[in-house]
Amino acid sequence: MGVEQPKHWRAVCPIKVWGLGFVEAVESLIGEGAREVSPIQSSVQPPPEKRPLSPPEPLRFATSVVSYLQRRGVHPDVIGRCFRAGTLYESRYKGVPMCVFVGRDESGKVRFACMRGTADDLKRDEPSSDKRYSFCIPAKNPKSRHLAVFEGPVDALSHATLQRRKGWEWDGHRLSLGGTSPVALAAFLERNPQIRRVILHLDNDAPGIIAARRIKATLAADKRFRHLRVSVRLPRVGNDYNEVLLHAVRQERERKAPPRREAGVAL
Question: Closest Cα partner for 35 from 49, 14, 20, 15?
């Protein structure tokens, strides 16, 4: 199954390259060699020796994080689930509140932490973070065979919120790559050999499309992962799954808004 090409791409993209599909045209125009497939580097090998991970100290209250994520449409139940799991908390960087998304290993030890500002554009990983243990929302059933993959934590939270809002009957793990590198994905698959279905929900832009195609081809070429059924599902609205969620929230508000009454004209 190839990469889905949402209708709005065809409607707004003015570029045409004769004899090439959309993704191939993107690759040609930006000079990416996405056709070359190289095996994923072994994720079981630990990274070079670094200083111990020192994630930011959590604040007692997380009002800024809750407010920030709710403004982005994330449901309080989804936020609370991550707080209780210890994979999300609030801290400060240079006095500014920020979300801290945490990845833990099998023993529960924090191995990864990335920060996202709630009032600015801060985006950074804590030094010594191990990408093999990126942020993840586990399935309710730990033995679930399904895995959804996103570029960032907020997209994973948004997907979980959409499921709750629309009543999707799906129980799978949601993994953030922290970008487009497949390192976290390969490590997760090695730690969870029961996985049989992988859905790549990367961003609907040139880097995301090319990365999704490359990851799918690489998994198919790797003997460790040839048993997987892998598909690509790009957001049908906007660039990522948070934009899909915000679009759904706006539509719901418009449906619930009372009809506007026209003012009468006195004659």
Answer: 20
